[in-house]
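User: Please fill in residues for this 251-position structure.
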C-alpha cells in the first residue's frame, strides 16, 4: 500500500509533526511518500532520511535559531537563512533528494515572479532553507540564480503533491487559525498579520478533504510561529492529537 504523509508549515509548531510521526510509527504505519512545506519540509526531510523522532526533537531543541551570529547584513531579513546550512549538513550528509530513503517533495515560493515551485531532486538543504524562510524574518535563498522564500505563502499544505502516487494520505496541519476578539486588534500590523493568517488557513482548509486521515491539533492556535520556549508543550499537544485520531480510526 502506498501511504502519503503531508506536513504543513507552522514554524516551531512543526514540532507537532515530530510528535505525529511518533504516533504514526506506534500504530505500525509506514509512509512511502512525503510532501512538506516550510517546517513540514524540514521535518519531512529528516524523516525521509531515516532520523528517529527522538533525534529530530533533539535537533530542533539544540539549534540556535536567533543567535546573533546568524544576523543578516545587507540582506532583506533579520536572520541569514544560509547560515543554517552547516547545522543541517551533519544530519543530512548526502545533501540530495536522491540520498533519502523515502521520496520527498517540498515547495518554496519564487520571490520575484510569485510562483510556487516544487523541489524533488538534486541538492536538498538549500531548498529546505528556502521553503522555511519566513518572510521578513529570514532572508530569501538563491538557488540557481533564482530567489525563493517561504513555501507556505502560496501552498502551506501540499497534500495534492501526493494524490497521484498514494492510495491513502495522512495530513498533519499545525497552523489552525487562532481565535481572536476584536479587542485584540489594536494596531495596523495586527490587521495585516490576521489577513496573512486567514489567507494561509483558507487555502489549507480547502485541501482537508484530500486527506484520508487528518491530524489538526486545534490547541496549537494558542502558540505563535516562534514560540521557541514551548517546544515540549507543542510536542505533547501534537502527540495526543495524532495518537487519539489514529486510535479512533483503528477502532
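Assistant: Residues filled in for all 251 positions:
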Amino acid at each position: 500500500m502506498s501511504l502519503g504523509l503531508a506536513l504543513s508549515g507552522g514554524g516551531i509548531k512543526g514540532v507537532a509533526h515530530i510528535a505525529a510521526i511518533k504516533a504514526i510509527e506506534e500504530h505500525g504505519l509506514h509512509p512511502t511518500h512525503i510532501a512538506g512545506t516550510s517546517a513540514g519540509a524540514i521535518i519531512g526531510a529528516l524523516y525521509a532520511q531515516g532520523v528517529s523522532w527522538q533525534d529530530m526533537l533533539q535537533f530542533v531543541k539544540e539549534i540556535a535559531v536567533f543567535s546573533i551570529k546568524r544576523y543578516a547584513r545587507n540582506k532583506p531579513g533579520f536572520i541569514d537563512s544560509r547560515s543554517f546550512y552547516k547545522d543541517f549538513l551533519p544530519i543530512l550528509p548526502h545533501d540530495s533528494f536522491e540520498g533519502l530513503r523515502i521520496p520527498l517533495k517540498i515547495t518554496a515560493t519564487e520571490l520575484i515572479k510569485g510562483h510556487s515551485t516544487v523541489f524533488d531532486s538534486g541538492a536538498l538543504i538549500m531548498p529546505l532553507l528556502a521553503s522555511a524562510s519566513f518572510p521578513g524574518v529570514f532572508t530569501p535563498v538563491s538557488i540557481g540564480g533564482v530567489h525563493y522564500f517561504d513555501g507556505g505563502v502560496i501552498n502551506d499544505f501540499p497534500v495534492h503533491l501526493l494524490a497521484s502516487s498514494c492510495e491513502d494520505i495522512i495530513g498533519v496541519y499545525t497552523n489552525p487559525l487562532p481565535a481572536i476578539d476584536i479587542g485584540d486588534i489594536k494596531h495596523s500590523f495586527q490587521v495585516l498579520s490576521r489577513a496573512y493568517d486567514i489567507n494561509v488557513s483558507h487555502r489549507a482548509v480547502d485541501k482537508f478533504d484530500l486527506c484520508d486521515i487528518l491530524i489538526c491539533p486545534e490547541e496549537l492556535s494558542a502558540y505563535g510561529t516562534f514560540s521557541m520556549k514551548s517546544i515540549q508543550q507543542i510536542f505533547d499537544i501534537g502527540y495526543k492529537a495524532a495518537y487519539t485520531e489514529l486510535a479512533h480510526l483503528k477502532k
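For context: The mean pLDDT is 93.
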